[in-house]
Amino acid sequence: MTFGRTLPLLTMLVALASPVLAHDGPPFPIVSDRVLGAYLVSVWTDPDTTDDGSPAGQFWVTLSRRGGGAVPDATRATVAIRPLGRAGSERRAAATPVRGDVSNQFAGLVMDHEGRFAVAVTIAGPLGDAMVDAEVDATYDLRPPPYLLIVYLMPFVLVGLLWGRLLLRRKGRLTPAPTYREE
Whole-prediction pTM value? Predict the structure, then answer.
């Protein structure tokens, strides 16, 4: 097969596989530094779906004053999600300050299926109320359990040990014989 035929085939395979790609990794922003009333708001998420009812849909709300300065301690955010494209009820959670820092709040929600979700973050506090909407794709967390790391790494460790043993044997064979000089 020539390069001229391989490239279009490879391109087509990558294009067909792209809808399969899903989020798997660290949190990412769905709202970045949006000015809402007296607040500057960012929302980060790790939208994992679970079957066991655990709140794996994680949302971090970062708040600051629009003109700078600290956000009042009474400021609270609420995160609500609802499925898009299928029936389902809205779920809400009050965000709690992370380590007592009201400018960084966290909420966990159950995302019971894969797919698009509408996200609404409501902020209430002495500086006024604000609301921001976004959307996110929820997917199953594809990371393996930590104990499987050993299982996955074992073949590479064994190959490395065998390779090292081979190198040591070769080094032993290639050591030059001592030469004796007559005086």
Answer: 0.65
